[in-house]
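Reading a protein record of the kind used here takes only a little practice. To see the layout at work, look at the sequence and tokens printed below.
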Amino acid sequence: MKFVISLVCGILSHFCTYFFCTCVAQGDKKKEHTSSDLDQFLKVSYQSVLKASEGFSLANLIGKGSFGSVYKGVIENSETTIAIKVLNLLHPAASKSLFVECEALKNIRHRNLVKVLSACSGYDHRSDDFKVLIYVFMVNVGA
């Protein structure tokens, strides 16, 4: 009887060990194949945003509101047209608006929403705080 019990316990422990090792190995494979969210975004600087919007020229201005302005531009070394939302950080609620917008876009997926390509936060040429969101540009065909 002791032999049968020890044999059954040994077999069960081998199955448990095999199952555990298999689950851990598959979890590691999934982590290797998924890229982080940061790798999907473009790496942009103030200078590249300035160049893409041609110095934030009025000719590229496509919208203006209390929290900032939106400019059309082209990414350097690419044919991709982008929309650059520059926040007016002099407005006290602009930073909060940015965080709310990012949180909403992070959690919502819909075919009619434009894709966020990147964000940039830093300082401009006058050492003022500078924050932008960069979207895929979509022509407004409904208006």
User: Anything to note?
Assistant: The radius of gyration is 25 Å. The first helix runs from residue 2 to 33.
